[in-house]
């Protein structure tokens, strides 16, 4: 369901407020401590929940605009016409795509990218995009015009179609922008006019905003990202409780909503408040472990892209980074360097059997540690934290590379494992019983290629392939170069399963039958080949693109984008697709899902300027490689000594 009319009007008009105030009053650059002190205060609402509140009045300005049509500003003047604009664009996109889907050859934007800016020299496979359906030209066209002219006409068709899809995506992305006190601070998860049940899709999700934020950064629109970073930072330290229990202080919310509420003591005016959800209202009450990790990754990308390092240097931002790190690096009962989390703590935010040490969290954790290390200002007080961070980086990369990796060779080793080994140098450290190797895996594992498994626990390997975790392991250099190439080899070898009719499967394969019943709790939304249970999520395109660019194989991503382009706009930008081959729009999928739109745009922007991907990539550094090789050559027994001053993990 779309936002209520009054809310939509408020948002639209709020866009005009900066014209009145000149600049965002919440973030004066000169105040590096807390930008909110004078404007924002906490309000206790709905029992123990707190909200962030912007205390200056806004409605009277809005009323002035409405009644007198003053000022206007971009959004103020265009509010009435925006929906017309959209439907107009949609129509144009549809009518053009009808012709172009038959005429395109898929090479247009790869060629274009090649001309513009290959990241590591020339791309060597200009002909990789061999799509039978798009290579065949209409016979009548061939008959009537020369080959050269056909080429040109075809290229023009494709370009017009693709341009119109991109234009539509940008319009939709801008329409999804959420304003707070007159400034853009995020994008709403979905703006689906056909859905009657909004749930929390009208909120700004931290993880969903990342592709939106990257798209805006790549377009040179930095304010929305800066505002998002600083406002969510304020939410981080809010007091939060769930049935009298408070989670760790560094926790970032899963999402937040801008609410318009009556101003205390004044019936004629309203004010806006930020209302965060840390999981205490989320379906299943899941803690969003990934939010803080994404926040750090976006913060670094913001600095790298805009060149404005003043945000990451602010004391409150530095404190925010440290709070997240402390929460993640805190001592617990863990024997492993991987982060121990509950089910549903990331993109897969409901029960799917990923509790323990899921790959997605580990890859984001590793990436966030590297990003934080780059941004933390050296100061005496943080020496211990930085030491802990470095130790963890080494232990984590060793652990994942060594124990999560699987390919034909490793699979065969596991198949021949001895079990019940009680010793310090056991080969089968986690006591994996070979019978766990599922029949599907024996068939599925290609001769060339491999991947990182989904999870590792005592006597348990989750052999499912999880896309985000594998892609982000490439992007962050958690996987070695060889492993990274092998993951992409596997994506190519298993194209029909992972990409099929719409990129990209969130995981493979689906849980079925009794396994589905037990592991998901018979979740009707997560039936086999739907939603989190091996559904296909177009948003993952941007991560596939970054990973492919990093490995200098952008043509793989280009091919996936081309497939998405055939139907994503026509299908109204769904959240996910169902069935083994991603043929149906997801059973309960939202339409106009913002991160599907933004994911597509980021993929396109990066393919046309691959060097820009460096704002997300972290390269393996030599210090780590050294420490890593010392670790491999060291005798594991020596690490058990009591004198060791550094924290030790099972590696
Ligand atoms: C679903 C997804 C989650 C996403 C949210 C908002 O719950 O599983 O990853 O953040 O929708 O789009």
Give the helices and strands, then pairings:
Elements: H1 5-14, H2 17-21, E1 40-45, E2 49-54, H3 59-68, H4 73-78, H5 82-103, H6 108-116, H7 132-135, H8 139-144, H9 147-175, E3 177-180, E4 183-187, E5 204-205, H10 206-218, H11 223-236, E6 255-263, E7 266-277, H12 289-306, H13 310-313, H14 315-329, H15 359-375, H16 383-404, E8 405-407, H17 408-415, H18 439-444, E9 450-457, E10 460-466, H19 467-475, H20 481-493, H21 495-498, E11 507-508, H22 513-520, H23 541-550, H24 554-567, E12 577-578, E13 584-585, H25 594-608, H26 622-633
Antiparallel strand pairs: 1-2, 2-7, 3-4, 5-6, 6-7, 8-9, 9-10, 10-11, 12-13
As a percent range, the share of helical residues equals: 40-55%
Shape: globular
User: Which structural class best describes the helix and strand composition?
Assistant: alpha+beta
Question: What compounds sit in this structure?
Answer: alpha-D-glucopyranose
Average residue-wise pLDDT: 78
Oligomer: single chain
Strand content: 5-15%
Radius of gyration, Cα only, in angstroms?
Answer: 25 Å
Residue runs with pLDDT of under 50 for 5 or more positions: 1-50, 56-143, 637-645
The main sheet comes to: 5 strands, antiparallel
Q: Number of helical segments?
A: 26
Distance between the termini: 49 Å
Question: What strand order characterises the main sheet?
Answer: 1-2-7-6-5
Total number of beta strands:
13
């Amino acid at each position: 369901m779309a936002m209520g009319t009054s809310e939509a009007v408020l948002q639209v008009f709020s866009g005009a407020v900066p014209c009145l105030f000149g600049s965002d009053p919440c973030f004066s650059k000169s105040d590096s401590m807390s930008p909110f002190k004078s404007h924002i205060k906490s309000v206790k609402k709905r029992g123990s929940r707190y909200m962030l509140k912007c205390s200056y009045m806004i409605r009277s300005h809005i009323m002035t605009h409405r009644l007198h049509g003053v000022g206007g500003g971009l959004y103020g003047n265009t509010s009435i016409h925006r929906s017309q604009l959209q439907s107009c664009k949609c129509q144009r996109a549809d009518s053009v795509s009808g012709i172009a889907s038959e005429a395109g050859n898929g090479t247009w934007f790869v060629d274009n990218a090649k001309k513009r800016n290959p990241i590591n020299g020339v791309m060597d496979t200009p002909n990789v995009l061999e799509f039978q359906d798009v290579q065949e030209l209409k016979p009548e066209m061939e008959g009537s015009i020369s080959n050269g002219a056909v080429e040109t006409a075809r290229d023009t068709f494709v370009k017009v179609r693709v341009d119109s899809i991109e234009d539509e995506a940008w319009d939709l992305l801008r329409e999804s922008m959420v304003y707070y006190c007159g400034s853009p601070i995020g994008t709403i998860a979905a703006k689906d006019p056909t859905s009657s049940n909004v749930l929390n899709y009208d909120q700004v999700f931290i993880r969903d905003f990342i592709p939106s934020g990257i798209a805006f950064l790549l377009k040179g629109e930095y304010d929305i990202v800066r505002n998002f970073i600083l406002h969510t930072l304020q939410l981080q330290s809010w007091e939060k409780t769930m049935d009298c229990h408070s989670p760790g202080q560094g926790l970032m919310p899963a999402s937040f909503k801008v609410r318009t509420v009556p101003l205390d003591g004044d019936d004629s005016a309203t004010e806006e408040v930020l209302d965060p959800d840390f999981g205490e209202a989320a379906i299943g009450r899941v803690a969003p472990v990934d939010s803080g990790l994404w926040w750090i990754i976006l913060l670094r990308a913001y600095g790298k892209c805009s060149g404005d390092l003043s945000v990451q240097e602010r004391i409150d931002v530095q404190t925010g980074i440290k709070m997240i790190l402390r929460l993640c690096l805190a001592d617990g009962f863990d024997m492993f360097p991987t982060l121990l989390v509950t089910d549903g703590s990331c993109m897969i935010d409901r029960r799917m059997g990923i509790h323990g040490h899921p790959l997605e969290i580990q890859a984001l954790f590793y990436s966030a540690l590297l990003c934080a290390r780059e941004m933390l200002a050296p100061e005496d007080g943080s020496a211990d934290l930085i030491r802990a961070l470095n130790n963890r980086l080494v232990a984590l990369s060793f652990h994942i590379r060594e124990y999560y990796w699987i390919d034909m060779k490793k699979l065969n080793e596991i198949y021949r494992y001895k079990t019940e080994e009680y010793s310090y140098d056991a080969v089968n450290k986690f006591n994996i019983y070979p019978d766990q190797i599922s029949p599907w895996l024996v068939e599925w594992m290609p001769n060339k290629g491999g991947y990182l498994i989904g999870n590792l626990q005592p006597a348990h390997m989750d052999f499912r392939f999880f896309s985000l975790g594998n892609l982000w392991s490439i992007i962050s250099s958690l996987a070695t170069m060889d492993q990274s190439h092998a993951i992409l080899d596997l994506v190519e070898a298993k194209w029909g399963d992972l990409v099929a009719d719409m990129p990209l499967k969130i995981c493979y394969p689906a849980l079925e039958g009794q396994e589905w019943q037990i592991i998901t709790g018979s979740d009707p939304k997560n039936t086999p080949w739907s939603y989190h249970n091996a559904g296909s999520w177009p948003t993952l395109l941007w991560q596939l693109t970054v990973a492919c660019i990093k490995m200098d194989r952008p043509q793989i991503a280009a091919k996936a984008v081309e497939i998405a382009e055939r139907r994503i706009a026509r299908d109204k930008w769904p959240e996910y697709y169902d069935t083994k081959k991603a043929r149906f729009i997801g059973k309960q999928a939202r339409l106009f899902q913002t991160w599907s739109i933004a994911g597509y745009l980021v993929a396109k922007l990066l393919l046309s300027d691959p060097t820009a991907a460096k704002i997300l990539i972290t390269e393996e550094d030599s210090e780590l490689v050294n420490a890593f090789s010392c670790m491999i050559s060291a005798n594991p027994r020596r690490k058990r000594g009591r004198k060791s001053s550094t924290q030790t993990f099972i590696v």
